[in-house]
Amino acid sequence: MASTWADRDLSVIWHPCTQMKEHEQYPLLPIVKGEGVYLIDDQNNRYIDAISSWWVNLFGHGREEIREAIKHQVDQIEHVIFAGCSNIPAIELAEKLVSITPSALTRVFYADCGSAAVEVALKMSFQYWQNVGNANKKKFIALENGYHGETIGALSVGDVALYKETFGPLLFNTILAPSPDCYNREAGQSWRDYSLVQAEKMALLLEQNHHEVAAVILEPLVQCAGNMRMYHPVYLERVRQLCDEYQVHLIFDEIAVGFGRTGTMFACEQANVTPDFMCVSKGITGGFLPLAAVLTRDDIYQAFYDDYATLKGFLHSHSYTGNPIACAAGVATLDIFKNHDILGNNQKLIKKLANIAEQFKEHPNVGDVRQTGMILAIEMVKKNGEAFDWRERRGIRVYQHGLTQGALIRPLGNVIYFMPPYVINEQELELLAKIAFEGLEKAIAD
Questions:
Q1: Which one of 14, 94, 304, 361 has the fewest CB atoms closer than 10 angstroms to its CB?
Q2: Per-residue pLDDT tens digits for 330-363
Q3: At what angle do helices 88-100 and 324-339 cross, to 10 degrees?
Q4: Domain range annotation of the chain
């Protein structure tokens, strides 16, 4: 006899980014199935997945092409050690990644999640300078309000206190540059002008510290976990120039913003710049399996090339590196982009999101409405423009209202945001906007 949700002891699981005590009052959502943009619970209630289940389900749930690719691969080989062995899906995915990323990125190193990809990029940059005889370059510059994951290295180059503060004694020191976050621009100042002003603050830090800096790391265009704060592509252009001038690596964390999320396949394309390392994950398998990759240039790869791994080799590994099933899902995901005009169709959805945004702009409790591609963010504030205290839990009220109306909307603090699957339609976007607006009204009511 098949077990049901009611048969299970939910207390045995410790969920991430969750205060488990809350679920004594607000039960966990019992999801049993997914179809397209919808999540379906054990009572057959349907919820629009407004956040692509933590930004990974690019094409919604249950996409047939990816599911079939996984089934096929399971019948071939489920896993093989990636040291001394290889497999066709891993090779094919690497070839496809190289073909769609900036042309200078010709080498692919696999990891199993976004945080691990960031760790790989940091370690590669650090060791590169050791291998070429510049042992002084041991530090990193990151952006204020940036987020790159929750492993020790990734946290060290992040700056979201909610995740970082507790673990401060475990982390290595990072030089923080003022964020180009355009929410902080002066009245009448354009995104471009503000981003250029902030870039000159990066210039000063590099001038002062370049002799000991291995790399600059940042999220292109959108600081996602940093409350979806956004900035102009010109900042990327200027930072690339600075890194070239001062001989410092540039790491782009495209984990959340890659694979079409900002309107182009990768966010860096909007500035026409190439990083020295690009980290990708999340949407790479369309939400089916964990996988990540770091792409880099051949000259960096060559600095690790020697007779034995113990000489200059990059001694970093994961047990599931290059997993064939995950890589097969990745191949199928990239084939969807190739066989369908995903980016073209997204332009229509981007325009619809912009239209939807208008209804929030005049609300007295909205301090900012911002959009980059398929990301729309609405920042709730007090009527005097001051920020709500996060402990007032305004965002949680929006989330709870959404569930009663058939939508999974999970705000970041006081920021309501949409990051929907690319298969959402305009009517579903309108419904999300209606639910979010109602949730906003409930959230600000004292």
A1: 14
A2: 999 999 999 999 999 999 999 999 999 999 999 9
A3: 40
A4: 5-63+341-444, 67-339
The predicted model scores a pTM of: 0.97
CB 378 within 8 A of CB 411: no
Residue appearing with tokens 């009611």: 6
Pairing, β 407-408 against β 46-49: parallel
Alpha carbons within 13 A on the beta-carbon side of 1: 3
Q: To which CATH superfamily is domain 5-63+341-444 assigned? A: Aspartate Aminotransferase, domain 1 (3.90.1150.10)
Query: 178 vs 142, 235, 273, CA distance in Å?
Result: 9, 12, 21
The whole-number average pLDDT for the span 365-371 is 97
Residue position matching structure tokens 């182009």: 264
- Model pLDDT, residue 399: 95
Angle at 179 between CA 182 and CA 146, to 5 degrees: 110
CA distances from 393 to 47, 223, 396, 439 (A): 22, 21, 5, 12
The fold of 67-339 is Aspartate Aminotransferase; domain 2 (3.40.640)
- Rg (alpha carbons) of the chain, rounded to whole number: 22
